[in-house]
Amino acid sequence: GRAFQGLYPPASSFKPVVALTALTGNIVDEWTTVDCPAYIELGRFPKTKMWNHTRKPEGLMNVTRAIARSNNCWFYQVGIETGSSAFLSTARKLGYGSRSGLPLYGESSGRVPTNEYVLKKFGRPFTDGDAANYSIGQAWEATPLQVAQSMAGIANGSVLPRLQLIQQVQDPTGGALRASEPESRNPLHLDPDAVQVVHQGMFEVVQGLRRLSAH
After folding, report:
1. How many other C-beta atoms lie within 10 A of the C-beta of residue 81?
2. Catalytic positions, please?
3. 20-42 burial by CB neighbour count: b if 16+ within 10 A, else e?
4. Comparing C-alpha atoms, which of 195, 205, 197 is closest to residue 156?
5. Whether the Cβ atoms of residue 143 and residue 7 lie closer than 8 Å to each other
6. Do 125 and 115 meet the contact criterion of CB atoms below 8 Å apart?
7. Is the CB of residue 50 less than 8 Å from the CB of residue 39?
8. Which residue of 20, 37, 72, 78 could cross-link 52, Cys pair, CB 3.0 to 4.6 Å?
């Protein structure tokens, strides 16, 4: 079952998590702008070029514009300043790195990197390169179900909803014998203003796609 057993990099679906962490931690605010070149350079000589997906400079961007454009260079820079440990901690609150709790045989828990894991495997702590990669959802894995659950948490804004397999049990006439009630898996402790800003950025993603399809 790919939805709950397949492991894939969450990619750009993870960017709202980084934005939420940066906003909640006052690394940026709604109006902070970051210059977004075609690429940034990291590491020692020879430096590694980490590109924006368009491979073009896109100028100054605030957080909502960065989410709408899915601008890699904004998230590289803000992810580095926010820190891997901070935004990966938010990821865990949003269900990454643990099973959903549904009665599914063989569900994968995914893998969210930790500083201890990187130290053990590579013999070094988190680097800026790690933060840049992780901030755009690369170099680690999650299930599609975890991504969907995290989106539900961001949409809710205050708690991570507990997933349920059955919405309603009905009798032969269609009457409800039992209905599932919404339950919380855990609180998120996010800044409500930060959540609203991220919601706006995600809304603009959809509006941008609608405008493109209209043409």
Report:
1. 15
2. 12
3. bbbbbbebbeeeeebebeebbeb
4. 195
5. yes
6. yes
7. yes
8. 72
State how far the Cα of 35 lies from the Cα of 40, in Å rounded to an integer: 11
How much is the pLDDT for 212? Answer: 57
Q: What are phi and psi of 160, to 5 degrees?
A: -90, 115
Q: Phi and psi (nearest 5°) for 84?
A: -55, -45
CA 1 to chain centre: 22
Q: Where are the alpha helices (DSSP H) in the chain?
A: 2-5, 15-24, 63-69, 72-82, 84-93, 115-122, 128-135, 144-156, 192-214
Q: Cα separation of 41 and 80, whole Å?
A: 12
- Residue with tokens 């070149």, as numbered in its chain: 37
Q: Which residues of the chain have pLDDT under 70?
A: 209-215
CB 74 within 8 Å of CB 105:
no
Report the pLDDT value the prediction gives residue 44, as an integer from 0 to 100. Answer: 86
Question: Residue 122: which region, alpha, beta or left (left: phi > 0; alpha: psi -120 to 50)?
Answer: alpha
pLDDT single digits (tens) 51-88: 999 999 999 999 999 999 999 999 999 999 999 999 99
- The residue count for the chain: 215
54 DSSP 8-state letter: T
Quote the tokens at residue 82.
């926010």
